[in-house]
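ok trying this again, last paste got cut off
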Amino acid sequence: MNTKMYLIAFILIAAAFLLKRIGKSPSIIGKAGENKVARILDSLPRAYKVLNNVIIPNQRGTSQIDHIVVSPYGIFVIETKNYEGWIFGSENSEQWKQTFKTTKGHEFYNPIKQNWGHIYTLASYLKIDKRVFKSIIVFSDKATLKITADTPVIPMSQLKREILRYSQEIIPGPEVDSIYNSLSKINLTGTENEKRHVQSVKQNAEKKQRALQSGICPRCGNNLVLRKGKYGDFYGCSNYPTCKFTQNIRK
């Protein structure tokens, strides 16, 4: 094999390796999960109006909501986490954890709290009672969910059934159309808006980290204090129970 052929072979191998790495990136995995959920939502009856990848303004910048389904039976706000492995968490814990048998897991922000932030933003904009909204958290079917929560936390395969189990009409048909149209108008679509949202999320995360490093509650600005819990020590807000922020101690 001559030098040119060796070079071509090397380039092909490097390209294949790079594509494999890209395919495993969190953003690609996340998008794949959102696309799967979008296909499930497309199969809902005509009365259900679906919006995917919605970016709307809020007090801190923008909120990115994976899926919104407006229907006579409520407004479903769906957060997709295309994670595998064992998932541990509870309704009110600040962080959830993903673990595997052979590798160390990682923590991520409680998606129930994340989704309630989305619902608060939507309710404020639409001027609708928050009880009209139905929060659903969706994981990969390959995940083993060890979650203690009243909010539905389900695998993708159960999503359609979860939505269709609501049968009491609470939003008249004309209002369904009005809500859907209002959300469509404020949806900040386009690549540039997505980039700005990512930058906003990054800045907020950095601000939260600086507060934690200073022993300050990132939610209300009061001091954090060391507390003892059932599963070990953790930091909690000194303004509890008004503020229920907690932060696990990383070992």
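PB: full thing came through this time. The longest helix spans residues 191-213.
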